[in-house]
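tool_call predict_complex ligand=zinc ion
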Amino acid sequence: MKRIAILGFSLESNAFAAPCARWDFEQRGYYRGEEITAQARAETPAIYAGVSGFYAEMDRLYGAKRWQPVPIVHASSQPAGPVEEGFFKELLTEFEEGLRAGGALDGVYVAEHGGATATHTHDPDGEVFALVRRVVGPDVPVVATLDLHSNVSDVMMDSVDVMIGYRTNPHVDIYARGQEAARVLGELMDGVIATSYRVRLPIVAPSVTQLTAEGHPYGDLIRLGQTKVDDRVMNVTILSGFAFADTPKNGMTVIVTTRNDAQHAKSLAMSLAKAGWADRHRYVPRMIALDDAVAQARSVGIDPMAPSLLFADPADNPGGGGRGNTTYILAALLKAGVHGCIAGVFFDPVLVEQARSVGEGNQFHAKLNTRETARFSEPLSWDARVVHLHDGRFVGRHGMVAGKSVDTGATAVIALDGVTLVVISKRQQCLSTEFFEAFGVDVAGARSVVVKSRGHFRAGFEHLFPPERIREVDVPGLTSPNLGNFDWKGLPRPVYPLDPEAAWTPTA
Ligand SMILES: [Zn+2]
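tool_result ok
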């Protein structure tokens, strides 16, 4: 009987956003003990998909009689600011007590994000990994999955046996990486020795340049890495990292893990890093100006034969710590009198309450961002009509939420002249067409769509919007791909493309 502990801390921290604490995790996903197992095996789970994939693969490999989950705690928040030290220390204590109470363990799976910072350290993920290693000792295999927006520290490298990063952006392989973690853990429990080598490049890629589809540099590099996986190479992970964490550990990172072949791990990691560096000039964003976006939205709004367009607001991406409520694009569309536009999802619990008190079908004067204090989240007032009210619960069908339970909190659809806006109470990005359709808003029939998302929406809208009908709009915000807009304090400078003169010399 293999006894495997399962735990994890999942947060992507934007240094320019307000700190987060227990409430942020409890609202998104704070699972203890058997809740983790129940969620992992649920038909439409809400828990992090890596945990579900891990359980499914362990069940397949070992069957219920040959492995026993020892679920500890899995805590995940929407991307936000740094985690507050007090809460984080409580969480570490929960991890430690759970691991100690779990008795003798054969392995540990850590379902981590890896892009967190804390108010007391730039490396809380390192603290989690180090704690696990300290408690279970040097001989118990520990395998972690990481978001490809993870920033990797020495402590993280030294504390776990194998780190497995996502290979898709939008992240549609989280479940598969959980499955891979189970297979890797199985090998380690059978006595295989994992040997890793890491190279960090001085490339801090703007978020919108990190797509993995054909024709994108990051995808090309990941695919190159996967051609090297063989009997010797257990895993190739290439992490583009999360710029807005603003830490000294930022920088695109190549990790090659071999079956006990240190020399090969090093030479392969170095050759992949060289390929990534040679391609650095492709990590430069190509957004369009707000005026252009409005003109295009206006044009398709009055021409029913023109293909509809999707406009992304990557600068206010809740998936990167944005508040999901800036009004730059919305205000410009309203002032231009755009027709046939749908927009969402807009985070404003006060506005939802206002709409609920007014009731479906009734007119009111909508006031946006009345209680929001974040920079960039400017107020806006406009006459509106309440189209639909909803509890915000649905099951996703496309992209990253396919088959998953989603909860946007109390939700209101309001019409502001030619723009239909979906307003939510639980901050999150717009991941698929169901973020409109579940609330009765027709996406296929819209002339233009505006989404609060940097790039994950692509997987959930691709059945209606191929890449050539998607525009990224350059407006201000906490997650602007224009990295020159920010006052960086932690990044290891110089880094490309922020510092075009950045240099890198392979040291192998
Ligand atoms: Zn990510």
